[in-house]
Design a protein that fits this description.
By secondary structure, the protein is mainly alpha-helical. Helices cover about 70% and strands about 5% of the residues. It is globular and about 45 Å long.
Length: about 270
């Protein structure tokens, strides 16, 4: 577990991702306590995403080098804009949806907040997949890592999307059929996220392979805190404050296999 959490002694830059990560957790706790649909909640949403995307870029830079950090930012943002712009124009691969004006300025119809949200979760998803697949046979490790990262990335959206629909940030033209317990988000969205995740994670994997310093210069604790809190903390908020029990249950169900796998890994390394 030391590789997950610890910054190397005397390496002050290794602590940099922790400040925005902790602030994100505190801000996310405030989200369900603010007025639904109000300007304060909109501001909290923006702050969460800005902090989360900062964690990803700072951690990628500190742990793998400036080229990787810049690449993570550019690759993720470009992929997000392309997929979202195509989705808005054609309905593929997510289904037909529209964004509200509450998310602010756009590029090709895509609110700036959206690629930042992808950035917030893409890098932690890849890091978690790297950890989960480290014992896979070498020849199969990369495709396994990409597939697991895409699944983690899509799983995060299972929790997020009902919350954002509830907040009025986007609307689905045909929200059914959806996952059991979620009647506001179609299954096509999950399929689209899996496809987009596979493309993005394959690109990030190639990026890290070509640019990253080895070994990483710090642990992965800060971005994994973001991922864990946005999933399990989000599920808690959905169950206790936001009136979204279906997505709360799905958040827990999707997290349990990951937690079990990490526990088994930790026991195996003792």
């Amino acid at each position: 577990m030391s590789g997950l959490l610890a910054a190397r002694p005397g390496n002050r830059p290794a602590a940099l991702p922790w400040a925005p990560a902790v602030l994100l957790v505190l801000t996310a706790i405030a989200y369900p306590l603010t007025d639904d649909g109000g300007a304060v909640r909109d501001a909290v949403t923006w702050l969460i995403v800005l902090l989360g995307s900062t964690v990803s870029v700072v951690h990628a830079t500190v742990s793998r080098g400036a080229r990787t950090g810049a690449g993570v930012l550019l690759v993720t943002a470009a992929t997000a804009v392309v997929f979202e712009a195509v989705g808005l124009a054609t309905g593929f691969p997510y289904g037909e949806y529209t964004y509200s004006d509450d998310l602010g300025p756009t590029l090709l119809g895509v609110p700036f907040l959206v690629p930042l949200a992808w950035l917030m979760m893409a890098w932690p998803s890849w890091l978690l997949a790297r950890r989960l697949t480290r014992d896979v046979r070498a020849g199969r490790r990369r495709p396994a890592r990409v597939a697991v990262a895409a699944a983690v990335f899509a799983g995060w959206d299972v929790v997020l999307d009902p919350q954002m629909v509830q907040a009025g940030y986007w609307t689905w033209a045909h929200p059914r059929p959806g996952l059991p317990g979620i009647d506001t988000v179609p299954l096509t969205n999950l399929a689209g996220w899996l496809l987009a995740g596979l493309v993005l994670m394959a690109l990030l994997d190639l990026l890290v392979t070509g640019t990253a310093l080895a070994p990483p210069r710090t642990g992965d604790g800060a971005p994994l805190l973001v991922l864990g809190w946005m999933t399990l903390g989000g599920a808690l908020a959905h169950a206790g404050w936001l009136g979204l029990p279906g997505s709360a249950v799905w958040g827990v169900l999707l997290a349990v296999p990951v937690l079990l796998a990490l526990t088994l890994q930790a026991r195996g390394t003792r």
